Amino acid sequence: MKKKKKKVFRELADKYRCDGTTPRCAHFGLCGGCMFQDIPYENQLLLKKEYINSLLDGMAAIDTVNPGDPYDYRNRMDMVTAFGKIGLREPGNYKSVVDIDSCEIMQEKSRDLYKKIAPLARNIEGYNYLSHKGFLRYAVIRQARFTGQVMAGLVVAQNDDRRTLDGLIDAVIDDTDSLSIITQGGLADLSFGEITETLKGGFIEEDFDGVRFRITPNSFFQSNSAVAREMYREIKKETEGRVLDLYSGVGTISLFVAGHADHVTGIEMISESVDNAGINRELNNVSNVEFICADARPFLKEHQGRYDTLIMDPPRSGMHPKVTKAVNEMNTEKIIYMSCNPATFRDDLLILENYRLESFRAWDMFPQTPHVETLAVLKRK
């Protein structure tokens, strides 16, 4: 399936590419971070519109893809440190890392921080993820768009060689609002783990229309705050009554829509995220929201008919078909479905046969890449 999708996007890229479009990044074509910098941005939106309409083929259609900022938008970048390099992997080649000096889709403050980190990280023993030997695995850089706060996380294979990081830490700590050492000793290629040292802060905060969100080193947050805020505003308009928020994470959507709801219940199976959601609730002094650590399917089966609005923002891999079937049997009047994967949304729409599609829109959450975010509103038949 992935190979087929890549082929589709290569063909669409050839169709919409134009002479005279100069990529802003010197690494374009070498690293796998971007695919479309040689395509005019207005054509990228047309490309994604064609992809979505072709994929959904009569089930749903869009007239346009709402634009984002073409560059300087990403909240988070995970830069791998291996083979004496720091950067991103080659497209289609997991074994090769492209040494990157700067990344143009990062926000400005985090890009400046990365420019300080990169040359120092190259002098620290990296982690060979093929032989599973070495020390520094990732430099993770995050920036909150609307507060400007910046976080760095240094992911290491073990904390024994901590002193080798001293020079890097001293050079960048004043440029961060939060700096942590994260230990990931497993064989899997992961950029999160146990927070073994908090050197500064421990979190950053983002602000969406006065709603404050605390972001910790391991917590998920949308990669594009500007577009996410636009979409949350649309979700809020559709929210009413008793609300269930599936895959609620650190509570961003639940808390943002709370003012339009009688009560919101957020369901999330990752306990750290539920804990952070509780902190965010207290941070915003919201009383009509609760967060529950639970698996979605059994919760849905036990709580049929109790909610007026169901909000879903599942991971890119989508929902398990059994979860989608349980949603179909919930008897909720309205479903608001935010998705970063139109293919899994299409599969779920086929299962949600008790619902009709009322509206469907798309936003360019990830400019320069093939990814696109959609928002659907479904009503019970």
Alpha-beta classification: alpha/beta
Main β sheet profile: 8 strands, mixed
Q: What sort of overall outline do the alpha carbons produce when their principal axes are compared?
A: globular
Mean pLDDT: 94
SS summary, helix count = 10
CA-atom Rg in angstroms: 21 Å
Give the N-to-C terminal Cα separation: 32 Å
The neighbouring-strand order within the major sheet is 1-18-19-17-16-13-14-15
Strand content: 25-35%
How many distinct beta strands? 19
SSE topology:
Elements: H1 2-16, H2 41-56, E1 65-66, E2 76-82, E3 85-90, E4 93-99, H3 108-121, E5 127-128, E6 133-134, E7 136-143, E8 150-156, H4 166-172, E9 178-183, E10 194-200, E11 204-208, E12 211-215, H5 225-238, E13 242-246, H6 252-257, E14 263-268, H7 271-283, E15 289-293, H8 296-302, E16 309-312, H9 321-328, E17 334-339, H10 342-351, E18 355-363, E19 373-380
Parallel strand pairs: 1-18, 8-9, 13-14, 13-16, 14-15, 16-17
Antiparallel strand pairs: 2-3, 2-7, 3-4, 5-6, 7-8, 9-10, 11-12, 17-19, 18-19
Helix pairs in contact: 1-2, 3-4, 8-9
